[in-house]
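Newbie here. two chains, one complex. Structure please?
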Amino acid sequence: EVQLVESGGGLVKPGGSLRLSCAASGFTFSSYCMSWVRQAPGKGLEWVASISTVSTYIYYADSVKGRLTISRDNAKNSLSLQMSSLRAEDTAVYYCTRGLGYGDYVFGHWGQGTLVTVSS
Amino acid sequence: DVRMTQSPSSLSASVGDRVTITCQASQDISNYLNWYQQKPGKAPKLLISDASNLETGVPSRFSGSGSGTDFTFTISSLQPEDIATYYCQQYDNFPYTFGQGTKLDIK
């Protein structure tokens, strides 16, 4: 069974930093593209960033480019999102997602999410 | 960026009703269109990929159609457990973009 478990969320001040992690299990992590998708309280879904299987290709939403960094460690079956220069508008539940099939970025499987709150 | 316009934004229907949600892309996205279901307090779940491909384990009352710029999501006979918000999403090009969502409840 595919499992994605996010951690690292919490309360941070504007301008601060936070690192989110996603522990993956139940599949061959190195064979799938991974992504982060977020959802502000009471709002819709927003794609944040995606990374290919061996980190060759990385994509970011314009709203986070230069501030959020996606990375992966295939040896540890782990996906990360380093967040810096955080703003109030980054407040959201952040979901880790796995590609549906080999080589695609479709959000086929989702973790339960971790809440990031940016507030003074 | 591809803008996804989903309608209606909310919908109230009775058990057994046929429910239809539409999604329009601002440019041709072929069939690179997914539909997700999100129940309150839960993570989204992929129901349909490639506009019309029903994911494994998803009830057959759900279906999707369309290509190019116009897409439709249908529940043939609404069940109480279908209460959720539904989102379309394009994956033709980055940035991947979602529709604004359709909140479905029981009349």
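Moderator note: The CA atoms of residues 48 and 54 of chain B lie 5 Å apart. The interface with chain A takes residues 34, 36, 38, 43-46, 49, 55, 87, 89, 91, 94-101 of chain B (CB under 8 Å). Thread marked as resolved.
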